[in-house]
């Protein structure tokens, strides 16, 4: 594994948990999967369609998103919106995020960079 | 899966990526795995030993942490410190974290809560 792969792996791990927050926050305004994809892209949080669509189905199954079929067009499309349960989860995840941010910031200032001392 | 499990699952996913940042930031000051465990606990980011120790070995293998055996005690202990590569990754992950925070905040304000309109 080269350095680039290591970086990418850790970045993806960091990003993974935030996609759920982004989807729940964005779909407080009802929208389609395709629209969400482009909204995330524009916001700088680009997510692959092959990651996003299964995630939306998972969140729907967990009743965090409500879905309705929009049949007004020739091709029926699923419209999602964040459910009441989803809003609660979003609030909980935002609280967790803020707590993690505070912990990281405290750890950073309490543990400055210090070269390893020679062990006796 | 009940609501509690759903919440826990999503919280863990959110937390997972941040443990690497916390370890790299904290071990800028050299320390033992056990010490890191209690530092994380005190900072509000408690991590299971069965998660942390394999992570430390993975980070060492990726040369993000440097390790030395401290044999001054009767029981040899491994002392870790964040390597130059690890410092670079930490900076990259912190930049990613800040970018995700900005995106989430922008998505949140651009997409207010709005009940689903009746589809025609």
Output the keywords.
homodimer, 120 residues, Arc Repressor Mutant, subunit A, three-stranded antiparallel β-sheet, 3 strands
Short description:
The structure is a homodimer of 120-residue chains. By secondary structure, chain A is mostly helical. Chain A is built from four helices and three strands.
Please characterize this protein's 3D structure.
- Chain A has helices at residues 3-26, 33-42, 49-61, 84-110, and strands spanning 31-32, 65-70, 77-82.
- A 3-stranded antiparallel beta sheet of chain A has the order 1-3-2.
- The two termini of chain A are 34 Å apart.
- Chain A has a single domain (14-100), classed as Winged helix-like DNA-binding domain superfamily/Winged helix DNA-binding domain (Arc Repressor Mutant, subunit A), CATH 1.10.10.
- In chain A, helix 1 crosses helix 4.
- Chain A has 4 helices and 3 strands; from the N terminus they run αβααββα.
- Chain A is elongated, with a radius of gyration of 19 Å.
- With 120 residues, chain A is mainly α.
- The longest helix of chain A is centred in the C-terminal third of the chain and has 27 residues, at 84-110.
- The mean pLDDT of chain A is 91.
- The interface between A and B is large, with 62 and 62 residues.
């Amino acid at each position: 594994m080269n350095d680039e792969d290591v970086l990418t792996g850790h970045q993806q791990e960091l990003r993974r948990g935030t996609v759920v927050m982004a989807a729940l926050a964005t779909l407080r305004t009802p929208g389609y999967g395709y629209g969400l994809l482009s909204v995330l892209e524009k916001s700088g949080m680009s997510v692959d369609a092959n990651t996003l669509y299964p995630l939306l189905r998972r969140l729907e199954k967990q009743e965090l998103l409500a879905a309705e079929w929009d049949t007004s067009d020739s091709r029926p499309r699923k419209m999602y919106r964040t459910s009441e349960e989803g809003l609660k989860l979003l609030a909980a995840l935002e609280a967790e995020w803020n707590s993690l941010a505070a912990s990281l910031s405290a750890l950073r200032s309490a543990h400055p960079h210090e070269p390893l001392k020679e062990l006796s």
